[in-house]
Amino acid sequence: MERMREEILIDAPVEHVWSFFQDTTRWHDWMPRMEVSELSGPVDQVGTTYVQVGKVMGFEMKSRFTIVEVEPKKLIREHTDDQGTQDNTYRFEPEGDATRVITESDYELPGHLPGLLKKVMTKSFFERQVRHMLQDFKTLAEVTVPVPA
Prior knowledge:
- By secondary structure, this protein is α+β, with helices and mostly antiparallel strands.
- It has a single domain (2-143), classed as Alpha-D-Glucose-1,6-Bisphosphate, Chain A, domain 4 (2-Layer Sandwich).
- It has helices spanning 14-22, 27-30, 115-120, 123-143, and strands spanning 2-10, 34-37, 49-56, 59-71, 75-80, 86-95, 98-107.
- The longest helix is centred in the last third of the chain and has 21 residues, at 123-143.
- The N and C termini lie far apart (50 Å).
């Protein structure tokens, strides 16, 4: 099993960052390589499921994730066993007027992937993708902070 951890500081209060993360209509804006569908409820509710489909080199990976732990404005943890085991944790930590978002993932690539694809989908590939995703999340979360009147 591989482990990955990335973090970013967002210049916005934790309430705003948490709310922005909950808006699944915006997920494609900061996760452009993924399509999300079949949401069974809000992502801040244990038991909610959704389907995530992504493509790497034309190979489709489709997984149904289940929200398995929630601490409001602090943590969301999700799990899937569909395309290899994967546990993702998103932490939201206030730092003054900003929020540190930490994402951790424990994953195992599915056994049926072709050897070349597995080689390309190394830990460094996933880490790069997550860093880009977090940077996009940061940019969008910061530009949507309400301006005081």
